[in-house]
Design a protein that fits this description.
single chain, 2 domains, mainly alpha, disordered N terminus, 253 residues
Length: 253
Amino acid sequence: MPGPTPQRPSRAFVFLPVAVAGLSAILVAQMIARDTRFAVPLLGVALLLFLPSFLARWRMRRLLLSGDVEQIIGSWQGSIETLPQRETMAPLLQATAYASYGWVEAARRALDRAVKGPAWDAAFEQRLFVEALLDAFEGERDAAMRKAEVLQVLPLPAGGPLARRRITRLRHGLAALARAFAHASVDGDASVLARAATASPLVHWAMRYAQAIVAVDRGRPAEVPSLLSGAPAWPEASAFRTYHGELLARAPA
């Protein structure tokens, strides 16, 4: 069972960073309106403040979309070393990466390595996400859909509105993915999967392959090449290698 839900922070603290950013933008606009000479130095300050973090996010996004799961896990290693309950959380994070890129056997082995205890119980939501992905890829369709349904009704964790919206999109996306692999998609699943694919680059390709399955099942196989455009050359260890060939074979020549 999941651990206790953490106490939600005051709404003032949740929205304070947004308010500060908005106020700063207004002040900057007023300064530039009074004297356009402020524009260049203020732009320089903004670049110095935000460019490094923007580049770091851009590089990580590009790495996640590359599908190179071993390099992705390697890039996390420094952070993993500092995690509390590392004997549980490190294998669980590795399993999340492996599952997200279709490495079913490697993900199962990582889950087996994780020490079972309080941290394992507290990570119920993440485990459920990983196990639902693996069940879908392994053909355990009913199990995948059941786990995705359980995940959808869990309370949302504390956080700002953007984070909560992202989590909601991922939960709905997982449910749509489970239905897609069970060939039981419903109206609107293609849009749900598209939104989930943009919510996190880690699961971008998993959602894309599910979206391609929906396109085939709904009589729109011509959409498959564009949905899978830019996909990595998946190794034998990834189930996506098989899905890729099978789905493209269904597309019209």
